[in-house]
# Entry
Amino acid sequence: MENIFMFVLISALLVMVPGVDLLLVIKNTILYGKKAGHLTTLGIVAALFVWTLIAVLGLAAIVAKSLFLFNLIKYLGAAYLVWMGIKAWLSKGSSPIELSANEHDVGTTEYSTKAHKSCFYQGILTDLLNPKTLIVYMTLMPQFINTNGNIIFQLCILAAILMALAIVWFIIVVYVLNIIRKWFMKPGVQNIFNKTTGVMLIFIGVRLALEEKAI
# Structure
């Protein structure tokens, strides 16, 4: 591997730059708590692992070269983001998952379990259906791979670095958000938050659908 420190720096910037992953972690942490934020992060990292497996098997190049497959992923991802945005916009009131004495009630526990699973799946689907993740594997990582060495091993190391950086960054984000979460749980504030995140998700989804293929 060549210029590994440069790769770490670029990857850190990619992870920290505001995007759909960060928006999802913020949304789910504010609405459903620290555990939801961590599960969203776990879903994102799981999707990166799947993309790594796809790259190792040589399937990423096939997807990148196929206009049909690339557009299929892009439009499915865009539709999913718009759908989540509409759900956030239509969401009313505060979530049952709050810091209260009733959080161990059966109804609240069932809602919490369902919401937490949803957060995990959101993390997975959002990254699996994001063609920009494919671009990272197809255009960024090859620049730091020594073709005279074990390419698969180097690819796995670079992917592991990307996943580790994502985990560290989002753990920090969740920790900070959890401190200020009580303020966001006020009905008026939460309603504005839902509407704002809804608009942002819809905007990102529409922008993704309109983007031209970059690889």
In short: Confidence is low (pLDDT under 50) at residues 96-108. DSSP finds nine helices and no strands in the chain. The two ends are 23 Å apart (CA to CA).
